[in-house]
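Q&A log
Question type: sequence-to-structure
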Amino acid sequence: MAKKSWQVWMIGLLGAVVGATAVRAGTSSQFNWPVPRIARRARPSVAVVLNYQKGRLRGMGTGVVVNADGDIVTNYHVVEHATRVGVALANGRHFTATLVGTDPPTDLAVVHVAHAGPLTPVRFASSKAIVPGDLVVAIGNSLGLTYSVTAGVISATNRIVARDGQLYHLIQTDAAINPGNSGGPLLNTLGQLIGINSSKISQAGVEGIGFAIPSNVVKAIVGQILAYGAVRRPWVGVAVDGTHSGSPGLFVAAVVANSPAARAGIRAGDFIAKVNGRPVHTVYQWQSVISQTPIGKTLDLTIWRGSSALLIPVRVAERSQIAKSHASTA
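Response status: OK
Response body:
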């Protein structure tokens, strides 16, 4: 009997140890869940952005503090047509903001609040470092419910979305994005900004498809708006077509008169095979090269004209009003 009692006691002790370990593991897992920490860290950098038109509140969105001086990035469509922009900070203080500049092609805008004291800027991370499956957190004023926190994963990293005649290269996420989230942060597990929430697909039967502007785009656009009040875009003045199978490069469909490309001698009907010695196979590659080239820099283009290969230097210029009237050109 003594031996049997000892065995029963040992089984009970073992059960208690296993149970305690399971409880401890569950508690530890709860404490390791990073979303509350991410939300706490980011909250001081998130603001409510209000769109007033002729004295009436017409819309609400979200903004993200980008520096301690009071500059806040949001979506262009959040402040579009506003006659006054209001900003409410996480500490409860309200301000009338001034519009620093907008960039409709990327759906970004920067507003400024003066005399707000040192603000807490968000920390930027490179959007090139993200991969599908990464945990992400979105913060915004969903349907007017301020500082709503949602979590999900990155679904894709380079979705091309057409909206209002513009093509956007966006991050796709299944974190809930609702009206009012626009302009708010999409954050990684370190609480760093990897995107600005911009839109979602709203139709019956569709759930979990939201989009954010990559942080690298946000950083570049905000930097230009703060420096110049607008975005200075590089341009050479050609429209290219990548659908000619078996061709030696991108087909030059049109060349804008008096553009850098025209002055350099590029003609409609040419094929652009290489830029600075590197092949270009798609329209997106071409546009990416141009958009990342500083204004004033010269690009060496390898051109096929008939059976002849030509090396033509083209000096990149700033996109002007004449360029804006040729929206399909880069």
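Response note: Residues 22-29 have pLDDT under 50 and may be disordered.
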